[in-house]
Amino acid sequence: MTAPAPQPALQRAARPTCLLCGGTDAAVVVPLEPTPPANHLSATAEQARALPRYPLDLVHCPDCGLVQLGDVVDRAELFSDYRYATGAVPALVRHFGQLAEQVIDRLRLAAGARVTEIGSNDGTLLGFFAARGMRVLGVDPAAALAAEAEGRGVPTRVVLFDDEVAARIVAETGPSDVVLANNVLAHVRDINAVIAGIARLLAPDGTAVVEVAYVLPMVAGGMFEFIYHEHVAYYSLHVLGQAFARHGLTITDVEQIDTQGGSLRCWARPAHGAGEPTPAVTALLAAERAAGVADGRFLDGYGEAVRRGSGRLHDVVAGLHAQGRTICGYGASARAVTLLAQSRIGEYLAWIVDDNPRKVGLFTPGDGIEVRPRRDLDDAGADYCIVFAWNYADAVRANAAAFRAAGGDLVIPYPDLLIS
């Protein structure tokens, strides 16, 4: 059982203007409990509990509509020891395989097509294109993950992407037929430089395929655990379309997909040859206007919903602990750190299991909970397991079959708190 985490002195980060339009009138939507950087797992529980904590307030810009963090932590601190690896999440590997097939079929890509990915991680997605004979290039600032990508045959530049990097790539290798960016725009501080770089990279008839976590279902469901310091911005189609247009790109089609608790997959092309957007774009923009995205009304009541959801989880877990039950968690992810901090349940968890071997043996930021291999879910005798990776609940249920057969129960926080 972990001891309650002490509270180190609160650190102030830079308080920026709007990351997209430069506006200075952003208003706080949800004031969350301060947390350490969510991916900073530590070698000891003591080190994990002593990590500096930064404010985690969500704000809304009334000028352009962007929802972002009120404090932005230095990127070097957040990504100096990045451990999230795409290839360690089987459901995400399947997702990227399906995405690659869709892109290849829809755009009729042939061998030799040039495909560039921003935030390419360990090269999982680009590997599917490389296997079809395409010329691929990854761009990612995490050297260790880039080395893994190189090892699987995916050339990778270790650098933070922006317009200058794009210009160098075009000068050295030529423009790209496809530019991919999956859950990247949430992480970048200079949004305009990245979108400008995407526009520069594209061939005149090229296509950008960009996935972003969608702010509307996050707010509608009262979800908050996707809010952490790496995710500085949260998008609607309304905001993203205007941002792309500023740099000469038009979103021609959009899909709503299930990843990250609800995401948008946007297809964008240079505006001069983009043509008319599909009915899906028109319909979603209309739905956003009706929901109050354009004027910010959709955020009314979000803070109260977050408080209710975190309080409900606390009461359930505290009640189980009071009955003498042993409680563990599944998924030592960044979102787990946010969920633990806001619901104040860290003191009740004995350990957390994770499928990523990079995390095993380390301790979660803030609460200092030990991360164990997944086999401990079956062997270590917990009564309940909180599924922090709830959007992969079906895969977790399959992996936890022996645990459940032995009488263990899963606690799934969202979309509705469920014990099964």
UniProtKB/TrEMBL annotation:
Domain of life: Bacteria
Gene Ontology molecular function: methyltransferase activity
InterPro entries: Methyltransf_Zn-bd_dom_put, Methyltransf_Zn-bd_dom_put_sf, MeTrfase_14, SAM-dependent_MTases_sf
Domain C-methyltransferase: 259-415
GO terms of biological process kind: methylation
Coiled-coil region: none
UniProt entry tagged with the keyword DNA-binding: no
Pfam families: Methyltransf_13, Methyltransf_14, Methyltransf_23
Signal sequence residues: none
The keyword Methyltransferase is assigned to this record: yes
Domain Methyltransferase putative zinc binding: 18-79
Residue ranges crossing the lipid bilayer per the database entry: none
SUPFAM superfamilies: S-adenosyl-L-methionine-dependent methyltransferases
Keywords: Methyltransferase, Transferase
Family matches, as PANTHER family: BLL5978 PROTEIN (PTHR43861:SF5), TRANS-ACONITATE 2-METHYLTRANSFERASE-RELATED (PTHR43861)
Name of the molecule in the record: Methyltransferase
